[in-house]
């Protein structure tokens, strides 16, 4: 459940997100809109990466403005560039890092990491340099590293960029298949957006539409027809 | 004022350490000699004048750590503990004060980046400090008297002078291309985006 | 980026990293004090052979390491001979070569992960200066993960120059710095989002 | 006109492109296929960035294997990561760099650069730092820097990645609107591929299908159904 009321973000005096008010109880949420419309900024407020400069925001029952730290614990974030989110030299170490942040004792981490990698078909690559993985495998690893902490909400910013049809489907299936209580997908991939339960459309830093994905996508397409 | 390190600072230190390493891979082929002539010193100067004394120095320390734990991160694929006990160790250790002093001179008290401060930082830090550690290092390890050891450092002077000039040009150009690369204090008059 | 560690296991691999590091420090101090005579220098060189052979590294690896520092040996000997005379040149060079080879032996037989742990332990006293050793070790690992990305960025920039038929000279470094620092911001965000920094 | 016969690329003994034989006279060529199937490798051979290790390749009448230099002059290349191809601090300087390489005398470059930027709606950003442009604007700038040299053939590797519907359409319209004698678009965006005259599909380093875009795309989609 996301509850935003009058959420705004201003950086150096320019307002890049303005008066976003919405309640989203649906489990699968798509966020669409033009480049620079404020989608990523909104997504980042959801787990406290950016603090709203005005308004109130609650995600999974947590007041994000007052408790950004617990928001980050409860809300996982997947970025579009896997190179920037794979933080350790090998997949096993990368997953272990997440486990460490989740407070799993050192002795258990290695085994639990391999187990998690197995779930994504990456166990055989556990100890090979992460940079040598393919694009799709890297994105899978990034997803695994986020999900291993069992976040209640998962926010993903353009997760299928640069992936082929097969990999995009696989990641899309995972993301829309109930990996968390609520999943928020920021995307330009309108096929992916159509698979969600509700769709939010941003324009010029404002939330301009929220509703049935088919309708919202049609309205977005109509803008450029 | 307490200087707090955020996640982005850690990431910048790591990225700059990586840049110093990468400059060792693509840099000019090290000529055979006691101490290699390497583009990595250019990276050390840049670390100081871009990130500033603390973060620039931290980036150099990370490179030291990578070398010490046995990774071939110095030019020519060298590394390991050997380079810290050999006759050239002084020059290598000198990278730390080099980056710190270059950063101090280039940024301290400045409200915006000026080319002459950067140039001074590159020369005093990148050349002065490196040699101030390297020459006694050679003398200590070999028993050669200091003046003679100093004479041998002249071999690097032309290359290092060019690197100081290049570091200045690059830093000034970076200031135009991407002001957020620099600490806020030296870009107060710029619009931060 | 292949570590300088020998891939095969030797008996020296089993010695804890801390012990090896401590002995290296002791030996280099002892070497600096004791080997200023011809006999001392000879002992130092024979001792390194002994370490390599007894430790299971072998005399061939010893010779390989010696070959790697051949230019240092030549120049060192020449400089010392000019300034200090022949005898001093021989003993001085032998002493330095011995200690460099011993240090190399530690590197050759200690896996990077063990060395990283040892380093972390060495840094514990720095807690007083508010330096967290675990955070330092983490930054080192982060750097190892980032190096291939930066090196790839460099390759992309070179490729873009070729494709456009332009030559930037050293100015390509500015393009790399911009890309690398923007990448750093993305990495920083990922660190925060993952709750690890 | 692209004429490939038995083109192969092996790197360190692994064959990443294998026996590609095809003649493509159509002006708009789409290249699709899974991640790692060899699309980018094929695209790079077209302007001599990668030399085929076997076979013969001719693009716009130039033998790419024998004359990689003139191939690079006649064949422009647009990469997907604009950050790596914008080589100068400001848009004006970046275009001027291309003009310099094209032999335009110094005195004329500044003016010609502004003119070129005007054609892409970027004139007002000519002297602002390039990093501060939006994703779409950066991609436009990269395109302008390539096209200002008037290449006879243009190869673009995933040019619409991260762009919104409007920007993707705009770049797509430009690329499919006759900016060069022949345009080769490597893409995961199947809507873009559908707008071409012919479509090549790669799989495992081999060209597995070449023909009518609708048919080739349908076959590609069927693989993952
Ligand atoms: N740190 C910042 N400082 C200043 N302006 C910013 C900052 N971050 C974003 N902006 C601006 O805020 C606006 C919204 O950016 P945001 O990244 O949220 O857009 P977006 O909808 O995600 O776009 P895209 O589809 O291109 O990812 C843009 O105009 C951007 O330039
Ligand atoms: N320089 C290289 N050295 C070794 N292998 C390489 C190199 N470049 C590419 N490859 C390998 O060749 C294969 C084809 O790569 P290529 O980049 O052409 O694929 P692609 O079809 O463009 O994939 P994507 O859709 O992910 O961009 C991949 O398996 C890749 O790992
Ligand atoms: O790679 C090493 O072992 C350390 C090299 C130290 C190089 C010194 S720093 C000053 C001088 N300028 C150079 O180009 N090389 C030396
Ligand atoms: Mg965005
Ligand atoms: Mg590709």
What does the model show?
The complex is a heterotetramer, with two copies of chain A (225 residues), one copy of chain B (193 residues) and one copy of chain C (197 residues). Chain A is α/β, with parallel strands linked by helices and 225 residues long. Chain A has one domain (2-222): 3-Layer(aba) Sandwich (Rossmann fold). Chain A contains nine helices and ten strands. In chain A, strands 6-7-8-3-9-10 form a six-stranded mixed β-sheet, sandwiched between helices. In chain A, strands 2-1-4-5 form a four-stranded antiparallel β-sheet, covered by helices on one side. Chain A is globular, with a radius of gyration of 18 Å. The mean pLDDT of chain A is 93. In chain B, 66% of the residues lie in helices and 0% in strands. The two termini of chain B are 24 Å apart. The mean pLDDT of chain B is 88. Chain C is built from nine helices and no strands. In chain C, α2 runs antiparallel to α6 and α7 (112-122) crosses α8. Chain C is mainly α. Chain C has one domain. The chains are: A alpha/beta (225), B mainly alpha (193), C mainly alpha (197). Chains B and C meet through α1, α2, α3, α4 and α8 of B and α5, α6, α7, α8 and α9 of C. Bound molecules: adenosine-5'-triphosphate (ATP) (2 copies), biotin and magnesium ion (2 copies). One adenosine-5'-triphosphate binds at residues 11, 16, 33, 35-41 of chain D. Chain C: It is a multi-pass membrane protein. Chain C: Its main location: membrane. Chain C: It is found in: Membrane.
- Average residue-wise pLDDT of chain C: 88
Helicity range of chain C = over 70%
> What class would the helix/strand composition of chain C place it in?
mainly alpha
At CATH level 3, the topology of chain A is: Rossmann fold
**How many E strands of chain A?**
10
| Alpha carbon gyration radius of chain C | 22 Å
Number of helices of chain C: 9
Q: Which runs of chain A of at least 5 residues are low in confidence (pLDDT < 50)?
A: none
Distinct compounds present: adenosine-5'-triphosphate, biotin, magnesium ion
Largest contact between chains: B-C, 58 and 64 residues
Q: From N to C, what is the helix and strand string of chain C?
A: HHHHHHHHH
Number of domain modules of chain C: 1
Number of self-contained structural domains of chain A: 1
DSSP E strands of chain C, number? 0
Q: Could you state the order of secondary-structure elements of chain A as H and E?
A: EEEHEEHEHHHHEHEHEEH
Query: End-to-end span of chain A in angstroms?
Result: 34 Å
Spans of chain C of at least 5 consecutive residues whose pLDDT stays below 50 are none
The strand order across the widest sheet of chain A is: 6-7-8-3-9-10
What structural category arises from helix and sheet content of chain A?
Answer: alpha/beta
Radius of gyration of chain A: 18 Å
> Strand share of the residues of chain A?
25-35%
Subcellular location (chain B): Cell membrane
Membrane topology (chain B): Multi-pass membrane protein
Protein name (chain B): Biotin transporter
Family (chain B): Belongs to the BioY family.
